[in-house]
Amino acid sequence: DMEETYLLNVEGVKKKILHGGYGPLPHFQDGCKITFHFQTLKDDFERTVIDDSRVAGIPMEIIVGKMFKIEVWETLLTSMRIGEVAEFWCDPVVSMYALVSKGMRKIAEGKDPLEGQKHRCGMGNMFDYHTTGFADLDELQRTPQPLIFIMELFKVEDPSSYKRDTWAMNNEEKLAAVPKLHTEGNRLVLARKFKEAAEKYQEAVICLRNVQAKEKPWEEEWLKLEKLITPLVLNYCQCQLELGEYYEVLEHTTDLLQKNNENVKAYFKRAKAHAAVWNEKEARADFLRVAQLDPSLAAAVRKELKLLGERMRRKHVEDRPSHYF
């Protein structure tokens, strides 16, 4: 039976192999992606389960040397062979677990684990908000205790073989991803796949916003990034107009115009969205601002205003109580 317990060369960690893996120990280079299932249990009589990736149905992935540094897991996983199932006992010092779990739960919900963070450092966040947003994790924060991790290792992929999620990238990688996403979005627009295109533009915006969050607002670097963000947001809005998501267009164009009140394209797209949701007064004001900022668009604006007038008249006829007819 393989159930011998032995210490990794790490203080405070014991390992028990429940099911042997196969092949040699994988090469865990920086940037490689490890796919695994895990369970986290308390070291109490009932072995209370805190997290179980199988419940979510999707295996976990971490990038070696990256992510919200979960060193202890990197240590555990890199001791494993493919197909191995092992149980690790970790003393409280080792398990900065609440932070890690919070990040993973957000990913399982499809959210960016870094979303809404003021600081880049997870610890700072904790002290800022005094809560992880999860009661069971808050309790672990307050009373550090040993934890048991049961891990099953599925695969290890080297960095060139998989597409990295944006949150797992560093700044250089994020900036390099943007033009690719932009081009991809434009290609999808030409194919009239507006929903898919919008997702590409949005991903590019998120990359840039994450980089921008580390700069001081309105300073040179921040403004440079804002200049790159603006056309992507406008393309995103164009897709949303095509998809009939007018309120989303109003929100994003208004946000752009608060930062730069001379953005002709933002006024034009906002005017179209206002017109679509029957805000006649606002649509007219935005269309007139377009013509004023760019006289070469005067003819296009006249055409839009004529269309708007006709639509409003039709609506008034349709809205009139029927006993007038």
From TrEMBL:
PANTHER family: ARYL HYDROCARBON RECEPTOR INTERACTING PROTEIN RELATED, PPIASE FKBP-TYPE DOMAIN-CONTAINING PROTEIN. It is found in: Cytoplasm. Pfam families: PPIase_AIP. Keywords: Cytoplasm, Repeat, TPR repeat. GO terms for molecular function: peptidyl-prolyl cis-trans isomerase activity. It comes from Salvator merianae (Argentine black and white tegu). The keyword Magnesium does not apply. GO terms for cellular component: cytoplasm. Gene3D superfamilies: 3.10.50.40, Tetratricopeptide repeat domain. Residues 29-155 form the AIP/AIPL N-terminal FKBP-type PPIase domain. This is AIP/AIPL N-terminal FKBP-type PPIase domain-containing protein. The keyword DNA damage does not apply.
